[in-house]
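Field reference: "sequence" (input) and "structure" (output). Example, Cytochrome c oxidase subunit 1:
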Amino acid sequence: MSTEVVQQYETAKADSNWGLLSWFASVDHKRIGLLYMLLAVFFLVIGGVEALLIRVQLAVPNNTFLSPQFFNQLFTMHGTTMVFLVGMPVFTGFANYLIPLMIGAKDVAFPRLNAMSFWMLPFGAVLLYWSFLTGSAPDAGWFSYAPLSTKPYSSLPGVDYWIISLAVMGIGSVAGAINIAATVICCRAPGMSLQRVPLFVWIMLMQAILILITIPPLNSALAMLLIDRWLGAAFFEPARGGSALLWQHFFWMFGHPEVYVFALPAFAMVSEVIPVFSRKPIYGYAFVAGSSSVIVLLSYGVWAHHMFAVGLGMGANIFFAAATLLIAIPTGIKIFNWTATLWGGSIRCTTAMLFAIAFLVQFVVGGLTGIMFATVPIDWQLTDTYFVVAHFHYVLIGGIVFALFAATYYWFPKITGKMLDERLGKIQFWLWVIGFNGTFGVQHFLGFMGMPRRVYTYADHPGWATLNAISSVSAFFMAAGTLVLVWNVISSLLRGSTAGANPWDAFTLEWFTTSPPPVENFESLPEIKSRRPVWDANHPEQADWKTSTTPADNGHRPDKAKTSAWAFVVSEAIFFILLLVAYVVFNARVEDASGPTSETALNVLRTGIFSVFLLSSSVSFWLAERHLSRGDTTGFRKYLAMTILLGVVFLVGQAIEYNELIQDGVTINRNLFASTFFTVTGFHGLHVTGGLVALSIMLLMARKGYLTPKRSKVFGAIGVYWHFVDVVWIAVFTIIYLGFLQ
């Protein structure tokens, strides 16, 4: 272990004596994982209260318990809270806590980045809920459809708070995903090849990749909406030439893959719980792992099945219907794998296992109703009814929340060293099964009967009152079940039985250390020769490696700095691609445009000259990197300074262009060309500026003797980003200045 890592853990041990302050200052992955979970629990209570208030309002026809305005605010805040402040944090918390333990690592790849990623979430949450104090919480729905979310329809600041808070939380989510990916790829213990990692680790790696490609569409849409609202642009205002459908496309490019961001961790959890309590390895490890990868690949091709009713055309409808049916296949494969694992197993009906089995049943129901929506005529009939509400919650609660409960009962002994009470667990299980199916099962019938979603009240139509009353009363069963879990946790922490290191006789590495684990995670590791190293260590006569071989670990681990840089570049590339898509959409028919266009407003020759300076900076950076690797610090500093100078010259050129355009009256709110031009080039300029700051820090470190050939990989990681900025500018110049694709 390096001196730096040793010092880090000595500091962490000392910090454990600081009391409560140590939790705020900690970089230990286990504490940060617990902070994620506690944050999610806190907002689960808030989101749950919001849901109960909604159900009270809908319990009887023509109810006046809530005003229409406050109902819309609760509806928006409930959805936003449950997605961004409950679902994503709780899964990130489990990943933070468990992945380093499962792969035999001391911590995540970047502990300080991990802490920053977490603290972005409560900061974003404060921004979101601060809107209530302004008297105007966001009320445009948690997907904020345009033009309802634009200034003419939502003039109060609630939507602004919503946009900024989601952007802040999105930054934290992307940083966290980069860290998880780098940890799995670069920090595995010797012997732990990628083909031997637990399914939880592999599937969470797929989830991290999915976050990296899912958040950028939302960020690009949020950026354009904020520019609309603050700077007077009109990306999403049809009355001024904008497109409300563009918001839907961008949002659902985030929104539907986001379902798999939630579903994949649930798959990961039950893939660990079911084999342990069936007392056998999971059936078809390769199929479960492979189908998870396929979901990531296909998830970007199904977003528009949320938009069948907007008139995309027959060709688009057929394509997205087929893609929706296709993506059901890898999910169905998992269902068969889990069922086959149960078949013939020595099943132990613990509370964790009961929740895992309930997950299977209820997720299948949610999946089957999802397949129904792939049939376009059925979607047309049901798309804005309570059938959608039922389907959505059967996936996200009936599936995912039940998997979370299974994981809670399974890993609680490892995290706390105490066992949860099984009798209370089974009471909670039945309260949730009855409450969940009573709440959302009847909503399928309300949808068939035509009850629209997103309404604050309804007329006394035949059958509606009875079914809504059942739904509302049943919701309190879930609340009661949650209170049982809270009592179970508190009482178990106070007087629960001691768990021991491995109370379930489980298989994976987290069960090889103490419960709870020490700061450094492990005193020693078993030899890793199969996918179940703890089983091999505890049952050497039945060791997996004797009967089932897996690809050996070649010992190679990529550099974590460059790995994280490439992950960040992938995410930012998608962000820029979508901004350029918006530019092309709004500027493809220049003959219909009014006001300035790229042909009339831009000086292509002058910008081309300044572009040469930026592109030349990639060459000078490459030369600086070569000199650093050879130990030539003088040459390194010279070429690095040249790189910074070339970047500054480019920014000066952009400033000159901006000044002339503004002097000519071409401002961001002039027309859609100006809006898209300033947005794309402005964000690129921000990225160049960020790169110059990083390069300047490197130059300062080099002058003080801190940047040596041994640390050249860190400099190379910055190079990945700098070359990416140059490549983006090639695309920007080609499309905007040279008119390609227009």
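The CA atoms of residues 122 and 378 lie 40 Å apart.
Residues 2-547 form a domain with the Cytochrome C Oxidase; Chain A fold (CATH 1.20.210.10).
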